[in-house]
Inverse folding.
């Protein structure tokens, strides 16, 4: 009898966890498992703000997929997915076509600019490891140019960060540490540099405890970060951004760098399938299958689940993507054994938002944490993700051990 074929698209947190768990729960001959990913490496999306600010090397953020999968049980194909045909059960890539009996779509997130004029063209987005490297080099180029320009334009040294949500704040935390280093390296007086966070909503870090938010804002302001809250970006141009400050009042901030960290959506490939979706995120069934498609699982940032306690979607996180990967592996095994699938419920252990390398805020197991303790926990969370996917060897190779800073 032909073995069922399982296709996993994307080797991020969700896809890799699925595959690593399939390796555990399925015997060698139980299925043909193929993992398809754009690059031959996985990158830690949750560390991208560090690579973008230049506080961590891009190489440190990624590792080879082949180092963490069992080549006997899983075939890895480096390819870019171009189309998913959930009716014909096939996937087209730049490296051939693949058919499947079961598919797991774990293609992650893309930036969302909500149609704001010029953002797509002129703002940078911390979307993947290559984009993070680009941002780092762009900022460094601005500093290097300023220091050699005969006629100096100080706006080169202004960095606008659009969005005071989780990603924006974590990026600002890294910039707060990186800017003094860049000033020293390129002979730039610190007072020439502006880092401005622009947020449309009336608050920073919506959903976070107000005491923790005050701590974060106080910490960042003490390091020279400016906040412009309740002032939506209405346009981006090659020179900077226009923000709305009142009913009829606008301000143009000239800037050499604009990084948009204010919104994400699912992978656009979802939108060209017949599966119902909202900004490429699919409201999945309780066992993580796509409505109407029993052989299609969707996890991670491409999936959307409503939190019954708040009646709002769970935020897209690596924590949930990895738990979903574990659950999908069990459900695939169940389907192959003609058993009932299990329902997925996120087990939320807490959230920690870093404020640079040595400070953070968070709520862990219901308790508020700040400062060095929170920063230590953040690093442990980062190391745990490595452990779950690649075991102790990967933690030794890529882990964060500068915990006593
Ligand atoms: P990803 O991990 O993004 O993986 C998607 C994979 O699909 C990638 O390997 C990509 O290369 C591949 N891919 C994409 N398109 C194609 C294609 N066409 N063909 C082939 N392969 C493709 N979450 C937390 O829980 N805690 C945090 O502290 C946290 N911090 C964050 C900080 C930043 C700066 C960012 C950007 C995100 C953060 N998140 C955090 C969110 C978290 O990173 C995401 O929720 C998580 O990465 C989602 O996992 P995923 O498997 O869906 O996608």
């Amino acid at each position: 009898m032909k073995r069922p074929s399982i296709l996993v698209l994307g080797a991020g947190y969700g896809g890799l966890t699925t595959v690593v768990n399939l390796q555990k729960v399925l015997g060698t001959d139980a299925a043909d498992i193929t993992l398809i990913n754009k690059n031959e490496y996985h990158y830690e999306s949750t560390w991208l703000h560090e690579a973008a600010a230049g506080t961590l090397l891009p190489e440190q953020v990624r590792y080879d997929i082949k180092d963490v999968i069992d080549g006997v049980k899983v075939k890895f194909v480096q390819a870019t997915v171009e189309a998913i045909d959930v009716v014909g059960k096939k996937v087209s890539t730049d490296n051939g076509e693949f058919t499947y009996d079961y598919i797991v779509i774990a293609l992650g997130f893309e930036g969302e600019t909500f149609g704001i004029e010029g953002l797509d063209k002129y703002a940078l987005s911390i979307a993947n490891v290559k984009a993070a490297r680009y941002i780092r080099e762009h900022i460094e180029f601005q500093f290097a140019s300023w220091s050699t320009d005969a006629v100096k334009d100080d706006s080169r040294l202004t960095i606008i960060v659009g969005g005071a949500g989780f990603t924006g704040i974590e990026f600002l935390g890294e910039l707060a540490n990186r800017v003094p280093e860049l000033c020293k390296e390129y002979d730039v007086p610190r007072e020439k540099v502006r880092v401005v966070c622009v947020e449309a909503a009336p608050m920073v870090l919506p959903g976070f405890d107000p005491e923790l938010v005050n701590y974060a804002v106080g910490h960042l302001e003490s390091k020279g970060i400016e906040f412009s809250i309740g002032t939506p970006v209405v346009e981006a141009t090659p020179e900077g951004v226009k923000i709305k400050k009142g009913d009829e009042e606008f301000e143009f901030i000239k800037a050499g760098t604009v990084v948009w960290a204010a919104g994400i959506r699912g992978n656009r490939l979802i939108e060209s399938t017949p599966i119902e979706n909202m900004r490429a995120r699919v409201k999945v069934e309780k066992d993580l299958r796509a409505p109407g498609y029993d052989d299609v699982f969707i996890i991670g940032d491409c999936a959307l689940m409503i939190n019954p306690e708040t009646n709002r979607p769970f935020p897209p996180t690596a924590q949930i993507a990895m738990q979903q990967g574990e659950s999908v592996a069990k459900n695939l095994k169940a389907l192959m054994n003609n058993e009932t699938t299990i329902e997925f419920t996120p087990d939320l252990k807490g959230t920690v938002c870093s404020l640079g390398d040595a400070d953070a805020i968070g709520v862990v197991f219901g308790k508020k944490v700040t400062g060095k303790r929170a920063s230590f926990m953040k690093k442990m969370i980062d190391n745990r993700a490595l452990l779950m996917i690649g075991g102790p060897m990967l933690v030794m190779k890529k882990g964060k051990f500068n915990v006593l800073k």
Notes: The radius of gyration is 22 Å. Residues 371-398 form the longest helix (28 residues). Residues 10-15, 36-39, 42, 45-46, 48-49, 80-81, 106-109, 126, 167, 170, 267, 269, 300-301, 316-319, 321 surround flavin-adenine dinucleotide (CB under 6 Å). The chain is about 30% helix and 30% strand.
